[in-house]
Specification:
alpha+beta, Aminopeptidase, 7-stranded mixed beta sheet, globular
């Protein structure tokens, strides 16, 4: 599929072989704040999730894709969630796992690919994302792609005993 192939990376469907990668991400406490995770996930649960990953976005209301480079190394994940066909919108989230692969255009290219796919193939009218006020890299990534800040949710995220604000960003397909 040409739509999900970029210059340096491509997006692909989840495979059973992604079990260890997903298990490592879901159990990485350093990112629990952005994933709203509070407890670890077992390999058994992730295996069950992967067995259901083939289901259509219209049925499960989400789509998770793997970000890979052309050496076929797995770099991260990008998701559509809260897929709402009636209102033609979805949330979008992205994670590049290793810090060494961040700030090199991987996230930007992956985001552009999924935005284009969402607007062209899924016929969505808008995408949105929620970003913690102190996640400056994500704010820069999404605004570079054309997302605009449309709201602030005060004291929205509780993490390590304190509250943080969260911005709501939106991209409308004109």
């Amino acid at each position: 599929m040409i739509t999900l192939k970029g210059e340096h990376i491509y997006l692909r469907a989840l495979e059973p072989e992604d079990l260890e990668f997903i298990h490592a991400i879901e159990n990485d406490e350093s990112i629990w704040e952005i994933s709203c995770t509070q407890t670890p996930y077992s390999k058994y649960l992730i295996k069950q999730y992967l067995e259901q990953a083939h289901k259509d976005i219209f049925e499960v209301k989400q789509l998770r894709l793997v970000i890979c480079n052309y050496n076929h190394e797995t770099l991260g994940l990008i998701d559509l969630f809260d897929f709402d066909f009636k209102n033609k919108r979805a949330g979008i989230g992205i994670l590049v796992k290793e810090p060494i692969n961040r700030l090199k255009g991987v996230g930007s290219e992956a985001l552009k690919l999924l935005v284009d796919y969402s607007f062209i193939h899924l016929d969505l009218h808008q995408l949105y994302c929620n970003i913690s006020e102190d996640n400056h890299a994500s704010i820069k990534l999404f605004t570079k792609q054309g997302f605009q800040e449309v709201g602030l949710k005060k004291d929205w995220i509780r993490f390590n005993g304190s509250f943080k604000n969260e911005y709501l960003f939106q991209l409308i397909n004109n």
